[in-house]
């Protein structure tokens, strides 16, 4: 047991360092080229910690000088979760290799590793706070433990997913995959607009690389916003705004290259795109009805939870009151998507029952 504890702790720290150290290098380069307000080396160290915590989807409270304007930064790129996910997966696999024959229950090792990783993340979130930027450290145990546990479940003797979870996961993959494909097409068709927005920012060579990486990490957020647009519930780019097929209320949009694919007006005819989620409901019923209505109901419950989760990850605030609502509305997207999926699934179920009778 002592060896399991020591190996799990050392590799949990390696999992942290595997992502944190590259972020520290980036922060040091940025600090060396752009400088800082105080000129102390604690600035890039804290900056690297904040970037790393943001990759775990941990939000921040901000009070920016010299105005002291307070805000909340929670609209984070959930594509960045892949960075700690693969780091955890790599180091946990190495831990299992070192512990060959020293444990009888791999689930116990998973739990111990995840707990150690969570403790390290929480400590860094707590000690990295400054008068201007404060990570919400009390959320760190939730996000860190979930990311670590899910990543370790893909290692070693993998757990067989229950069929309802498997079906719901496949449906989510279809939804997100469709959104990413359409975002990719829009990126190519609106490339000139995106280029103009990038030139306006004048990021430079080093900043351009970081800006490109940031846009890539925000692609899952964009995919969820797009499928919410398909559902008809739309999304927001600031408080009091709404971009959907039937309504278009938007003031000033931040200069960010990925925003170049946004529609510039309402498109009422595009409301027929809601049939996409009706088709998702038909697909859900097709995959489950052969095994009974119970599987359909169970899969639907997991699907609703996953839809609400990705809606939560794809929404948030960008520092100011004017940008207090960015991304999809959790309840609007959840209600609209679930209703349309239910229509497709219910229609398929009724047709199938009549066919059998």
Q: Can you put this structure into words, describing what you see?
A:
This protein is mainly alpha-helical and 357 residues long. The protein folds into 2 domains: 2-153, no CATH class; 163-356, no CATH class. The chain contains 12 helices and 8 strands. It has a 3-stranded antiparallel β-sheet with strand order 2-1-3, with helices on one face. The chain has a 3-stranded antiparallel β-sheet with strand order 4-8-7. Helix 3 packs across helix 5 and helix 11 (293-313) packs antiparallel against helix 12 (330-356). It starts with a helix and ends with a helix. The chain crosses the membrane at residues 12-34, 70-92, 112-131, 137-155, 167-188, 200-219, 226-248, 268-288, 295-313, 333-352. Keywords: Membrane, Transmembrane, Transmembrane helix. Pfam families: DUF6350 (PF19877).
Number of helices: 12
Structural class given helices, strands, pairing? mainly alpha
Largest sheet: 3 strands, antiparallel
Give the strand line-up of the largest sheet: 2-1-3
Instruction: Average the pLDDT over all residues and give the rounded result.
Output: 86
Helix content: 55-70%
Order of H and E elements: HHEEHHEHHHHHEEEHHEEH
What's the N-to-C terminus distance?
60 Å
Number of domains: 2
SS elements, strand count: 8
């Amino acid at each position: 047991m002592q060896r399991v504890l020591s190996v799990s702790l050392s590799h949990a720290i390696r999992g942290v360092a595997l992502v944190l150290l590259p972020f520290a290098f980036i922060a040091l380069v940025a600090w060396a080229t752009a400088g800082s307000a105080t000129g102390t080396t604690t600035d890039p160290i804290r900056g690297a910690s904040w970037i790393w915590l943001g990759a775990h989807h941990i939000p921040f409270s901000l009070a920016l000088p010299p105005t002291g304007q307070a805000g909340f930064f929670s609209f984070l790129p959930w594509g960045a979760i892949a960075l700690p996910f693969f780091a955890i997966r790599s180091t946990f696999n190495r831990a299992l290799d070192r512990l060959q024959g020293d444990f009888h229950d791999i689930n116990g090792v998973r739990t111990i590793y995840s707990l150690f990783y969570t403790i390290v993340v929480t400590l860094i979130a707590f000690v990295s706070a400054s008068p201007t930027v404060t990570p919400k450290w009390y959320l760190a145990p939730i996000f860190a433990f979930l990311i670590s546990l899910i990543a370790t479940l893909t290692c070693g003797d993998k757990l067989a997913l229950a069929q309802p979870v498997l079906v719901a996961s496949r449906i989510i993959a279809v939804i997100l995959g469709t959104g990413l494909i359409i975002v990719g097409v829009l990126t190519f068709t609106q490339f000139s607009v995106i280029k103009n927005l990038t030139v306006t920012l004048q990021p430079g060579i080093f900043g351009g690389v970081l800006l490109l990486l940031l846009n890539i990490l925000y692609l899952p957020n964009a995919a969820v916003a797009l499928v919410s647009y398909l559902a008809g519930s739309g999304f927001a780019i600031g408080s009091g705004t709404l971009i959907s097929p039937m309504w278009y209320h938007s003031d000033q949009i931040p200069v960010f290259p990925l925003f170049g694919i946004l529609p510039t007006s309402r498109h009422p005819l595009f409301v027929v795109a809601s049939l996409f989620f009706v088709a998702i409901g038909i697909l859900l019923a097709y995959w489950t009805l052969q095994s009974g209505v119970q599987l359909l109901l169970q899969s639907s419950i997991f699907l609703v939870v996953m839809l609400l989760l990705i809606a939560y990850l794809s929404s948030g605030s960008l520092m100011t009151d004017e940008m207090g609502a960015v991304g999809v509305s959790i309840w609007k997207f959840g209600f609209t998507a679930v209703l349309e999926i239910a229509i497709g699934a219910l229609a398929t179920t009724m047709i199938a029952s009549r066919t059998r009778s």
